[in-house]
Amino acid sequence: MQEEYSIFRRFPTLELALEIKELLENNNIDVVLDDNVPPVDVTFSGSTLQHKIELRINEADFNKAEDILEQHSNAVLDEIEKDYYLFDFTDEELYDVLLKSDEWSSLDYTLAQKLLKERGKSIDKELLISLKKQRLEELAKPDDNQQAWIIAGYIFSILGGFLGLIIGYFLWTSKKTLPNGQKVDSYSLKDKKHGKRIFYIGVIIAPIVLIMKMLSYF
Predict the structure, then answer these.
(1) What CA–CA distance (Å, rounded) separates 186 from 51?
(2) DSSP H or E stretch at residue 11
(3) Which residues contact 39 (CB under 8 A, 6 or more apart)?
(4) CA distances from 75 to 7, 61, 63, 78, 105 (A)
C-alpha cells in the first residue's frame, strides 16, 4: 500500500507526525507512517533527509487533507501566544512562508496570512494559488550538478563495482514528490540517460568481474 501513496508531510520528530496522523485519520483519511525516506524518492544531495518522519496518503486525498489542516490551524490561531517566533518575522519573511509552505507547518502558513493581513497587506486566494503554482514549478525542476556522480558511476561500472549499478539506477529512476503529491523525475533527461548507460554497463561488467574473481580461487 505504501507504494501507492505519496508523501504528504515530513516531520523532524515522531511526536509531530503522530499528531497530524491522528487528526487526518479522525477525518477518514488513511495514513501511512514512515520513519525513512525510500531510495527511489531521494536525491544524492540528501535534501529529503532533513525531515525523517513521513506521512503518506493517497494523492486523491491531498486537497481534503490540506483543508483539514487549514481548518485545524484556524481553530487554534487565537490560542497562540504573542511570543511565538512568527510574530517577529518581517513582511518579506512572512511572504517567504507563504511561498515555501511545504517547508512550514500548516499553523505557520495560516498564521503568516493572518499577520500579513493585520499589517495591511492584501492576501487573497488568487495570490496563494499563484504562490503555490510558482513553488511547484520551482520544485519540479530537475536537480543539477550531478556531473561528479555521473563520472563516479562510469568509473565504478567499468571497474565492475556494484556501486556503479546503484549510482546508475538512482540517476535513471529517482523520483521526488512535490507538495501536491505529484511525482516527477529527480534528474534531467540527459542525466537519466547517463544513469541508464551506467546501469547497463554495470549489468554487463559486474557479473564478468565476479566470475573472474571466483575462478581465480581455483
Answers:
(1) 18
(2) strand 6-11
(3) 170
(4) 25, 21, 18, 8, 15
**Could you read off the pLDDT of 157-170 as tens digits, one per residue?**
998 888 999 999 99
Q: Which residues have CB under 8 Å from 200's CB, separation 6+?
A: 168
Residue that the C-alpha cell 493517497 belongs to: 58
Q: Is there a contact between 64 and 16 (Cβ–Cβ < 8 Å)?
A: no
pLDDT at 3: 55
50: its cell numbers: 532533513
Quickly state the pLDDT bin for 39 (edges 50, 70, 90): very low
Fill in the amino acid letter for 13: T
Q: What is this structure's pTM?
A: 0.72
Listed as own residue / partner, the contacts of 137-141 with beta carbons closer than 8 Å and 24 or more positions apart are 139/102, 139/176, 139/178, 139/179, 140/178, 140/182, 140/184
